[in-house]
Design brief:
- With 452 residues, the chain is α+β, with helices and mostly antiparallel strands.
- It has three domains: 115-136 and 320-452, no CATH class; 137-220, Roll (Pdz3 Domain), CATH 2.30.42; 224-311, Roll (Pdz3 Domain), CATH 2.30.42.
- Helices cover 44% and strands 25% of the residues.
- The chain is built from 13 helices and 19 strands.
- The protein has helices spanning 5-8, 14-44, 95-98, 107-135, 152-156, 175-183, 232-235, 255-263, 317-343, 355-368, 370-388, 396-409, 415-445, and strands spanning 49-65, 68-83, 137-147, 163-167, 170-171, 190-196, 199-205, 208-210, 213-215, 218-220, 224-227, 243-247, 250-251, 270-276, 279-285, 288-289, 300-301, 304-306, 309-313.
- Strand 6 and strand 7 (199-205) form a beta hairpin.
- Helix 4 (107-135) crosses helix 9 and helix 4 runs antiparallel to helix 12 (396-409).
- The model is unreliable at 1-12 (pLDDT under 50).
Length: 452
């Protein structure tokens, strides 16, 4: 019996084991980068580092090299760098030792050491994206799946497999954009830049007017993205990256066409024709009512998000660095915006996941391929970096806030004030852990959290 690791990971109890392994790899890399930032800047600042640990709690294994003991500890959800004089007890240190004690350093040096942790998480994301752009970054494309015989598209010269890059001079990267533009221009000449076998072909076509909407006779890829656990699509066996070709024998050429059929058929079993890696099969799916539309007109859903065709694109060293910085900047901006909306009550708090969600997502992304997994790690790294900069005591952002106050008033906050702040920060951290574990458990059990 022959089986690959990824095939084995998709059946039985192995997905959980594979997910745990993938999560350990992802979190280990994130934590290492974060603590490495603290460690390197501390060393460059002349501060003695006593311990460098991946994980918290009891030491599993360790080795001392020079003044530093390098360890792996039992709880893998974090790590730490222990510096000389970090606990502010420097009275028993010799004058020579005080030169290398953390709390004896100027405030700007201490701030740099603390800030380096989140900074290295951002740099890790840039590095991972850079490697992907160099070797092949999965990029969304608007791919033509089929051209109807005798249609305006066929007359214009479109062929199945064409990738539409521009419509009327504007870039497009998903088929839904192409479909919407065609629909909005009935009877009007449109220009298309199409990539075909590494050559760019310029085509002009006039969409037919069908009930006031444009129609070229093109069918694009209807790609399944994320799938909700225990949803009708999940129960029917659909997977991310599946292509939907038809519903009840009616071809669907856009996500909107598929969604329109699903919406008006809650409770009715529909026959989906699916293409998975070139192999076609039928799946019976019964849409359920969308429970989120309380007080509104309810409609059917199957529990999937829109995906897109992807193509591996490679770039040169300089362009890759530019693109990696831009992609990381975008991820950082989206993370900050999401957290801002979450705090402001404009986002569903049930979306926030904890360690269990990370294990599930890590396994899922790793099974989809190395590129997906690397992008997931980069996104997690950005999230870790941004969240650590929040001005919450016990986190890096809280320490930076204390240093800023110290710099302004030219003296540190009192020991009592800092102790109280640290206790408040610890309480907030514990409350957050309880919150995300609750969300994870409710998600596994198939229930909606009370704040949904």
């Amino acid at each position: 019996m022959h089986s690959t690791l990824l095939e084995a990971a998709s059946s039985g109890f192995l997905p959980a084991v594979f997910g745990i392994f993938a999560a350990v790899v992802a979190l280990g890399l994130l934590i290492f980068a974060h603590e490495l930032g603290h460690f390197l800047v501390a060393k460059l600042s002349g501060v003695s580092v006593l311990k460098f640990s991946l994980g918290f709690g009891k030491k599993i294994v360790g080795a001392k090299m020079g003044e530093t003991e390098y360890m792996i500890s039992v709880f893998p959800l974090g790590g730490y760098v222990k510096m000389l004089g970090e606990d502010e007890e420097t009275t028993e240190l010799s004058p020579e030792e005080k030169k290398h004690a953390f709390m004896e350093q100027p405030v700007w040096k201490r701030a740099a050491i603390v800030f380096a942790g989140p900074l290295f998480n951002i740099l890790l994301a840039i590095f991972l994206c850079y490697i992907l752009f160099l070797t092949g970054f999965p990029t969304a494309i608007a791919k033509v799946d089929d051209v109807a015989p005798g249609s305006p598209a066929a007359s214009a010269g479109f062929k199945a497999g064409d990738v539409v890059e521009k419509v009327d001079g504007d870039y497009v990267d998903v088929w839904e954009q192409v479909a919407e533009l065609i629909k909005a221009h009935p009877g009007q000449a449109m220009t298309f830049s199409v990539r075909r076998a590494r050559q760019v072909v310029n085509l002009t076509a006039v969409p037919a007017d069908v009930n006031g909407k444009g129609d070229l006779g093109l069918r694009g890829s209807v790609v399944i993205g994320a799938i909700m656990a225990r949803s009708p699509a999940d129960i029917a066996g659909l997977k991310s990256k599946d292509h939907v070709l038809a519903v009840d024998s009616r071809p669907v050429g856009s996500w909107e066409q598929m969604a329109d059929v699903v919406k008006v058929n809650p409770g009715k079993t529909l026959d989906f024709t699916i293409d998975r890696g070139g192999k076609r099969f039928d799946a019976k799916i019964t849409p359920k009512l969308n429970e989120a539309t309380k007080g509104e007109k309810q409609y059917g859903i199957i529990g999937v998000q829109m995906g897109t065709d992807l193509e591996s694109m490679t770039y040169g060293p300089i362009e890759s660095l530019k693109l990696a910085a831009e992609r990381t900047s975008m991820m950082t901006s989206l993370t900050v915006q999401f957290l801002g909306r979450l705090i402001g009550g404009k986002e569903d708090a049930s979306q926030v996941g904890g360690p269990i969600a990370i294990v599930q997502l890590s396994g899922r992304q790793a099974r989809q391929g190395p590129a997906d997994f690397i992008i997931f790690i980069a996104l997690l790294s950005v999230n870790l970096g941004v969240i650590n900069l929040f001005p919450v005591p016990i986190m890096d952002g809280g320490h930076l806030m204390f240093f800023a106050i110290e710099a302004i008033q030219r003296k540190p906050l009192s020991m009592r004030t800092r102790e109280v702040a640290q206790q408040v920060g610890l309480f907030m951290l514990i409350a957050l852990m309880v919150f995300v574990f609750y969300n994870d458990i409710m998600r596994i059990l198939g229930f909606s959290p009370m704040w949904k």
